[in-house]
UniProtKB/TrEMBL annotation:
Protein name as annotated: Autoinducer 2 import system permease protein LsrC
Low complexity: bias regions: 360-370
Intracellular or extracellular location(s): Cell membrane
Alphabetically ordered keywords of this record: Cell inner membrane, Cell membrane, Membrane, Transmembrane, Transmembrane helix, Transport
Length: 378
């Protein structure tokens, strides 16, 4: 009877844990549902929102934010954040556009590679400050946000690179489509799939989650925490450099103010997409969906002629709701783990035969109650 009750209680605990796990996994599905409602309602009010031109613009705009969100996810799951991504985008966008304008003979792939390397170097600076020098990520990247932007302004010297100054072959990258899908969106999709696979299947990816879940335990487990954190910032910077190239190809006009303030949109997309701001959980797929949702909201508000200030309020509300949801899920998971910790020690007794169990009523039961050993050692 006792064994049956114990197994029943264990089944209930397992069911509760599975429910919590399912709730955590379907967050991305919730974003998909929100996207469906957003496009459905807005399209019903204003059918022009669902035209090919409108959807194409949404994909182009969300591709850049999604690229940045994928890189930011690598950093956030390690319990860090990179606020300098907008300045890295601006620096790489202006640098690439300037090289193409002043040296039109330079191959476009070389310019793209150079922007990626420039972004990676900026990411390495952040990584060394956070991973090696142990400067809090919020402070370090806030400082480099202004430092990189200052370098951009000094480099530009008030100059603006226009579309007429850049090769047509480069500008066509921002307008070209493959089977009706914008090329930039396909590039972002490929990056998303590659990074998502690496996080889920490679040891390095799983170690990033381990670091975010418990940095001290990760050190004890032999994970090279500093190296992984630096690598995450370098990868994030490289993707920001690639996003800078995409920005230049998309808009054509580039100056030192490119992407100013975009870091807040990126962080909001990551958190809304289900990546825990305290690290250890979340996926790049959710972050990309978050970017698509926020970009869709921006376009929907413009179509519905809603004041632009409302967009900031809505993004803030979504960010707060996502943080609250993350906290609720974390508390539920912690409670489930505590219940498991308290109840699991009794499970080995359930597998023993009733006659072999120690009897607490026996006077000899005093030396080692857990094992049933009597005072005389029998």
């Amino acid at each position: 009877m006792t064994a049956t009750v114990t197994r029943t209680e264990a089944g209930r605990r397992d069911g509760g844990r599975r429910l919590v796990d399912r709730v955590a996994r379907v967050r991305e599905l919730g974003i998909v549902v929100a996207l469906g409602l957003l496009f459905g309602v807005t399209g019903a009010v204003n059918p022009s929102f669902l035209t090919y031109a409108s959807l194409r613009d949404i994909l182009l705009n969300s591709a850049i934010v999604a690229m940045l969100a994928v890189g930011q996810t690598l950093v956030v799951i390690t319990r860090n954040v990179d606020l300098s991504v907008s300045s890295v985008v601006g620096l790489s966008a202006f640098g690439g556009a300037l090289v193409l304008a002043d040296h039109p003979g330079v191959p476009i792939p070389v310019v793209i590679a150079g922007c990626v390397v420039l972004g990676a170097l900026c990411g390495a600076v952040n990584g060394l400050l956070v991973g090696a020098a142990k400067v809090p990520a919020l402070v370090a990247t806030l400082g480099t946000l202004y430092a990189f932007r200052g370098i951009d302004f000094a480099w530009a010297g008030g100059r603006q690179v226009n579309a007429a100054d850049m090769p047509e072959g480069f500008l066509s990258l921002g307008a070209r489509s493959v089977l009706g899908v914008p090329l930039l969106a396909l590039v972002a999709l490929v990056v998303l799939l590659v990074v998502g696979w690496m996080l889920g299947n490679l040891r390095a990816g799983r170690e990033l989650y381990a670091i975010g879940s418990n940095p001290e335990a990760a050190v004890l487990a032999g994970i090279r925490v500093r190296r992984r954190i630096v690598a995450a910032f370098v990868a994030n910077g490289a993707l920001a450099g690639l996003a800078g190239v995409m920005w230049a190809a998309r808009f054509g006009t580039v100056d030192a103010t490119v992407a100013t303030g975009k870091e807040l949109d990126v962080v909001a997309a990551v958190v809304v997409g289900g990546v825990a701001i305290f690290g250890g959980s979340g996926t790049v797929y959710g972050a990309a969906l978050g970017a698509l949702l926020l970009t869709g909201i921006t376009s929907a508000l413009a179509v519905l002629r809603v004041d632009a200030l409302a967009q900031t309020a809505i993004n803030g509300a979504l960010l707060l709701a996502a943080i609250v949801l993350d906290r609720v899920l974390a508390l539920r998971v912690a409670a489930a783990l505590r219940r498991r910790r308290f109840h699991d020690p009794a499970e080995p007794d359930d597998r023993a035969e009733p006659d072999d169990r120690a009897n607490p009523a026996d006077p000899a039961y005093r030396a080692d109650p857990a094992s049933g050993r009597t005072a005389d050692g029998s």
